[in-house]
Amino acid sequence: QVQLVESGGGLVQAGGSLRLSCAASGIMFSINHAGWYRQGSGKQRELVARITMGGSTSYVDSVKGRFTISRDSAKNTVYLQMNSLKPEDTAVYYCAVGDYSMASIKSWGQGTQVTVSS
């Protein structure tokens, strides 16, 4: 049974930083593609950052230069380092495992709330 557990969310002031973690069981990040999504209130869920099995990364334009996705294969954990946070980054952040483009998702985490105050 695949389980993805996110942690690290919270309340932070604009300009601050948070690091989200996604620990997996029942699946190995090192041989799967993974990503972080977010869904703000009243908004559609969007793919924020993606890391492929080979370690390549990609980001939505709105977070480029501020967010970094990484993977620790020994801990079977994927991270999202978020710097220079803005109020518009406020959302529930979800970890997911899927295909190369993340168009087809194998498993979702339960989500962690990130709130950025102005």
Notes on the structure:
This protein has 118 residues and is mainly β. The chain contains no helices and 11 strands. Strands 2, 4, 5, 6, 9, 10 and 11 form a 7-stranded mixed sheet that branches. Strand 9 and strand 10 form a beta hairpin.
Overall pLDDT: 96
Q: What is the tally of beta strands? A: 11
Q: List low-confidence stretches.
A: none
What's the order of the H and E elements?
A: EEEEEEEEEEE
Radius of gyration: 13 Å
Helix content: under 10%
What is the tally of helical segments?
Answer: 0
- Specify the structural class: mainly beta
The share of residues in extended strands comes to: over 45%
What is the rounded distance between the termini? 40 Å
Global shape: globular
Largest β sheet strand count, sense and barrel closure: 7 strands, mixed
Tags for this model:
118 residues; mainly beta; seven-stranded mixed sheet; four-stranded antiparallel sheet; 11 strands; globular
Topology record:
Elements (H helix, E strand, L loop, with lengths): L2 E5 L2 E4 L4 E8 L7 E7 L6 E6 L5 E3 L7 E6 L4 E6 L8 E8 L6 E4 L3 E6 L1
Parallel strand pairs: 2-11
Antiparallel strand pairs: 1-3, 3-8, 4-5, 4-9, 5-6, 7-8, 9-10, 9-11
Short description:
This protein is mostly beta strands and 118 residues long. The protein has strands at residues 3-7, 10-13, 18-25, 33-39, 46-51, 57-59, 67-72, 77-82, 91-98, 105-108, 112-117.
